[in-house]
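call fold(seq) -> tokens
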Amino acid sequence: MKLRVEVVALDCLMVRLFDEIAEANMPWMLAASESLRSAFAGHLIDLVPSYTTLMVHFDLSGLSPSQARELIAQALIDLSPNARKRGACHVLPVWYDPSVGPELSLLSQRSGLTVDEVIRRHSEREYQVFALGFAPGFAFMGLVEEVLAAPRLNTPRKKVAAGSVGIAERQTAAYPVVSPGGWNLIGRTPARLFDRHRDGYSLMQPGDTVRFEAVGHAEFINLGGDDTPLEAQA
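ret:
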């Protein structure tokens, strides 16, 4: 861990703990997040965790930038992950089908795997939720196997259906709401990923883990899934 503090704005500092993305980072990120929240207490406006950084937005009327830096330094002395503190584990049902996941066949061709093998490999791993962003409730997860990694589309789609499950490089995610997007789509989940009536709004939070579970079309529909083909929703 290489601690650096970078200026984002007069009232906002970026705490960089790592230089590379890795699943092993998350226990340290969670411990740092908890310690920083405690240290800043009522002076904290927002704390945004990501893959390797924590953005600390503080109340400038109560803390100077130098005092904020001192709080960060003190909070992270002798930092130690809590092995017993883990996020929630979510199981998301997914209907993997070309009509809702048009890049499923493309990933099969790129990887040299059968479509069934692509589905099996994507759904057999437990993924770490690294960060939320892009859209409300959009959870960046990883890491997918290298054989399944694929670059974002050259031209993003103007409209991606809510629940669409995709891959970009070694990340995977499910779109919580209808939005533009350039990820490689391989299926769709009926899970409600964002709900303004839910505490925290997002189903998933950084530190949680996710496993995708392949389901058939009938079960997908019974769970409330929308099987409208992607092309028909454009």
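The helical segments are 26-40, 65-75, 104-111, 115-124, 217-222, 230-233.
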